[in-house]
Amino acid sequence: MKKEQQLDLYYQMVLIRRLEERGAELYQAGKIGGFMHLYIGQEAVSTGLIAAREPRDRVITAYRDHGVALNCGISANEVMAELLGKATGMSKGKGGSMHMADTSKNMWGGHAIVGGHLPIASGFAIGDQYAGNDNITICMFGDGATNIGYFHEALNIAKTWGLRVLWVCENNQYGMGTSVDRASAVTEIRQKAEGYGMKNGQVDGMDVLKVYDAAKDALKFVRENSQPYLLEIDTYRFRGHSMGDPERYRKAEEVKKWQENDPIGIFNKQLLEKKVATAKALDEIEVRVEEEVAKAVEFAEASPEPAMEELYTDIYCD
Amino acid sequence: MAKITMREAISQALMEEMDRDPKVFIMGEEVGVWGGTYAVTKGFFDKYGAMRVKDTPIAENAIIGGAIGAAMVGQRPVAELMTINFGFSAMDYIVNQAPKLHYMFGGQFTLPLVIRAVGGGGRQLGATHSQTPDAIFAHFPGLKVVSPGTPEDAKGLLKSAIRSNDPILFIEHATMYQVRGEVPEGEYTIPIGKSKVQRAGKDVTIVTYCKGLELSMKAAEELSREGIEVEVVDLRTLRPLDMEPIIESFKKTNRAVVVEEGWKSYGIGSEIVSRIYEEAFDYVDAPIIRVAQKEVPLPYNRTLEQAALPQVADIVAAVKEVLK
Ligand SMILES: Cc1ncc(C[n+]2csc(CCOP(=O)(O)OP(=O)(O)O)c2C)c(N)n1
Ligand SMILES: [Mg+2]
After folding, report:
1. Which partner for A72 in A107, B3, B49, B74 could form a disulfide, CB atoms 3.0-4.6 Å apart?
2. A61-120 pLDDT tens trace
3. What's the B43 CA to ligand 1 centre distance in angstroms?
4. pTM, whole model, 2 decimals?
5. Which CATH class is domain B2-183?
6. Can you tell me the distance from the alpha carbon of A168 to that of A145, in angstroms, rounded to the nearest whole number?
7. Residue B1 reports pLDDT greater than 90
8. Which ligand does the CA of A142 lie closest to?
9. What are the φ/ψ torsions at residue A256 (nearest 5 degrees)?
């Protein structure tokens, strides 16, 4: 990968981290409400994955969507504004943290019903197959989502009909407080694809370049063979499931062990060791991100609330 | 009388019934190790163990379908839907299987099943996570739907529900777990299918339940200061519906307001108003008004969300309107 692109990936990961850290503070201060699920610890997953797509490939994910939104090119301003429920958010403040989408960036949303977006992803691929193009739908979901019927129905139809979907399971080891082994008959999620005769793979989600390579290969397979593929990406969320999670289900040592595997720290080290970047260059990225996040907060706070009439817009088209 | 929260009341009912009857067990998402998303089953996992407090996969059909099956073979499961919105993922089991299996097989199967579900808006959770779809569930004969508004009723009704041999949907409100109220000391149950006058008055009848009760009681206080005495009738059970206290009250006041958190169209209020017209038309002195949620999916933004939800001021205004 070219030096500039590697630095860009690093920038994206740092942007997600810092934006969410500010988001957490604003939540504590009561400026953000509802459910907010942080992506901290998982940044390498969507950053590597989305870097591997063609712009024409569609992305759809669950509610843990701030990182995906930023990776798809939605601005920090808009993400922050949506978190604050402002009119300038991409969903006009009506969606909030869990519902970020921008179809012009081929980001088809964060979706809050676990597994609910998987059959819809199959539907995107049905639409694209019908249109005769070779777009791929990249559908991201958690380990917990593979235990609900939606997952199985969506995978089965995708394989049977030869749909171009890259199924991406972000295995962060827990669905809320339930560890994978307590909820899933197999702990290696990719095995579930075997039952549908679907090609599959697994990759370390703390290493952004490994994620990128695995995603490139998987996308190539899907595009060329007109077949779905399931990629399991192993990762860990460093924070609670959402804000206000008592975290009684996991030990501090376990979290600490994973935090030593910080995807940003790992990539930082790689960039320095391979002499792709100097420490100074990486520091400059930090500074640039700090400024961008500060501006986004300023923008969001200064933005207007949605007008009361917005309550009644967007209910129907006609 | 002890003063406890709604959370404690529900928790106590579950614990007392689990202690009383070994057939009673709980299954749902995060009910065990986490202690319940709303902390209702905190401590249960340690006390009763994994066999009686089952942390399920995220699989609503397996939860409700599984609870139906376990109930049919003689156990008394209390299945939990983390929120009622996820009940839509298991709609077939809730409305198309559970309410039919006793009837369709000539009474052979019994389903001593309780589904606890958390409903309601007001927490900025967005359109798919904030609904009050009680009317939909109350539409189906064969399913009983209970939705209490006080800790006393929650405890007594849940205990009755667990002892009942019918499938019962027990709807709680996400913003009411901290509501405090008096509950009787010691063992008691409250019969399902009985409405109750929660506040006596003579000028206007307010018919409501669950979150609507909290709002209506506040409105009643406010109106009382202006010399208007409303009588508040709490449905407590949506199906089977007990009209008796409502009709009795209406015959006295001749004016009514119906308050619910769900949408107005095809709602609980629509049913109550029709029934009053059918059963007490000669007593009607003014058109009955429904206070309900605006006809929009609930938005995330706090100001907009609050504008869409029924408020105390809406109830006060409606009462004054029927008095005109
Ligand atoms: C159908 C449905 N059931 C339950 C929930 C509540 N819920 C939200 S997130 C979640 C855990 C999902 O875990 P996983 O799929 O592993 O994703 P992660 O949060 O770990 O990213 C649950 C149970 C829901 N949103 N939808
Ligand atoms: Mg997970």
Report:
1. A107
2. 999 999 999 999 999 999 999 999 999 999 999 999 999 999 999 999 999 999 999 999
3. 22
4. 0.97
5. alpha beta
6. 11
7. no
8. 1
9. -60, -40
A177 vs chain B: nearest CA distance in angstroms?
6
Catalytic annotation on B129?
yes
| Pocket test residue of A176, A184, A245 for ligand 1, highest count of atoms within 8 A of CB | A176
Q: Tell me which amino acid residue B126 is.
A: G
Residues B59-81: tens digit of each pLDDT: 999 999 999 999 999 999 999 99
User: Amino acid identity of B93?
Assistant: Y
Asked if A303 contacts A84 with a C-beta cutoff of 8 angstroms, the reply is yes
Instruction: List, edge to edge, every strand of the sheet that includes B53-55.
Output: B53-55, B24-28, B76-81, B114-119, B168-173, B144-146, B237-239
Token pair for residue A2?
A: 């070219």
Mutation test of the interface with chain A: which of B40, B124, B304, B306, choosing the one with the most A Cβ atoms within 10 A? Answer: B304
Cβ contact B300–A33 (<8 Å): yes
Give the ipTM of the model, two decimals please.
0.96
| CATH class of the domain whose range is B196-323 | alpha beta
Asked if residue B154 lies in contact with residue B6, where contact means CB atoms within 8 angstroms, the answer is yes
Answer yes or no: are the C-beta atoms of B172 and B117 closer than 8 Å: yes
The residues near B282 (Cβ < 8 Å, ≥ 6 apart) are none
Question: Which token pair is A269?
Answer: 């080290």
How far B208 CA sits from the closest chain A CA (Å)?
Answer: 25
Report domain extents, chain B: 2-183, 196-323
User: Do A223 and A214 form a contact (C-beta atoms < 8 A)?
Assistant: no
Q: What number of other Cβ atoms are within 10 A of residue B229's Cβ?
A: 14
Beta-bridge partners for B181: B4
Those residues with Cβ within 8 angstroms of residue B79's Cβ, 6 or more apart along the chain or in another chain = B26, B27, B28, B63, B64, B66, B67, B113, B114, B115, B116
Q: Where are the domains of chain A?
A: 3-304
**Cα–chain center distance at A107:** 10
Q: Burial letters for B13-45: b for 16+ Cβ neighbours within 10 Å, e otherwise?
A: bbbbbbeeeebbbbbbbbbbbbbbbbebbbebb
Question: Could you write out the DSSP letters of every residue in B154-189?
Answer: HHHHHHHHHH-SS-EEEEEETT-TT-EEEE-SS---
- The CATH code that applies to domain A3-304 is 3.40.50.970
Q: What is the DSSP letter of B285?
A: -
